[in-house]
Amino acid sequence: MRATVVFLLTFLAVTLALDNGLMRTPPMGWLAWERFRCDIDCEDDPQNCISEVLFRDMADRLAEDGWRELGYVYVNIDDCWSSKERDAQGRLQADPKRFPGGIAKLARYVHDRGLKLGIYGDLGTYTCGGYPGTTLDKIEIDAQTFAEWGVDMLKLDGCYSNSTEQEQGYPLMTKALNATGRPIGYSCSWPAYQGGLPPKVNYTLLGEICNLWRNYGDIQDSWDSVLDIVDWFTEHQDILQPAAGPGRWNDPDMLIIGDYGLSMDQSRSQMALWAIMAAPLFMSNDLRTLNSGARAVLQNKVAIAINQDPLGIQGRRLIKEKSGVDVFWRPLSGGSSALVFFSRRTDMPYRYQTSLKALNYTAGTYKMYDVFLEKPMPVLKDATEFVVSINPTGVVM
């Protein structure tokens, strides 16, 4: 198979990874933005506004509904959490009406449930939502503030900053976070603001300063948005795939499974493709009202195990068929591997015929397991042809 070169590239890059020991597998949890955006109307919409109530509710659900044990441990605040003004000491402060207990108290609540708290900042004069940003002169004090509050992860956006400020600021925040002595996972939005590709983006440098990074635009609650992201990552996989590894991940953005835009087949497709891409798994949905179908997809233990494989090698597309079927492959530890047969078709189930030999597998006999049917399949020889029936916009994994 093709694993040899991939292993070598990964090994060379891992030695340069951010040395905070964190996120050796893709981080998992819940993130507010796609589902709840910047809803600050707590008078008329108290259950859904960006407030400590929302984040306590989600922490409760992660802790009580089986998510935490599967690895979903981060409760991540996004934009619009802060006051419009810094305090008298120049520190960021939570909005006093929506977070009356402050972020430190919320962090204790989250930690008491065996979870971790993530927070949002922006390397610029303002956040994307118009709240105080982190200018270059505020990097150290903001890092210290987050550490004192007990924050476990920082997502640093890039609105209202230029390329020079980003080039200075993102590495400076790495040093500032490390200097606090608190282990804080670091998500950088830097490449997304520079087009996501070399020469503007240096992925070797990113692997030295960030645990994960946003490469591309924000996901929206639609199948078109998921497909657009998958296509961009696939078109540039030769650049992106070697950049990922333990402690440093490409981030194609949130899981929108359980919201309004995806069918069940499309939900399985997003889960499968994010698992193959070794992507962070941050759900952005309402865990309080999640339906059983979405829960089954998001809690699929084998899909999660594939995503969390300790080798940390990002998968890639092997084949793009004229029929509208794409085949993705990811090498896993213990000599295993994951295959995803993905249909772009919208007409009817498509019967795709192939063999493991045609997919570059070495000669031998293989045990097979269908991830979403959750059952073993008949043992298969490499040269034996087999057929998978793939639903429109669906997957077989």
UniProtKB/TrEMBL annotation:
InterPro entries (UniProt xref): Aldolase_TIM, GH, Glyco_hydro_27, Glyco_hydro_27/36_CS, Glyco_hydro_b, Melibiase/NAGA_C
Cell compartment(s), UniProt: Lysosome
GO molecular function: alpha-galactosidase activity
This protein's GO CC annotations: lysosome; membrane
EC number: 3.2.1.-
Ranges of residues in domain Alpha galactosidase A C-terminal: 312-394
UniProt key word Lipid metabolism: yes
Keyword presence, 4Fe-4S: no
One GO-annotated biological process of the protein: glycolipid catabolic process
UniProt enzyme class: hydrolase
Domain of life of the organism encoding this protein: Eukaryota
Gene3D superfamilies documented for this protein: Aldolase class I, Golgi alpha-mannosidase II
Signal sequence, start to end: none
Keywords on record: Disulfide bond, Glycoprotein, Glycosidase, Hydrolase, Lipid metabolism, Lysosome
PANTHER family per UniProt: ALPHA-GALACTOSIDASE (PTHR11452:SF83), ALPHA-GALACTOSIDASE/ALPHA-N-ACETYLGALACTOSAMINIDASE (PTHR11452)
Subunit structure: Homodimer.
Similarity field: Belongs to the glycosyl hydrolase 27 family.
Protein name: Alpha-galactosidase
Organism annotation: Pygocentrus nattereri
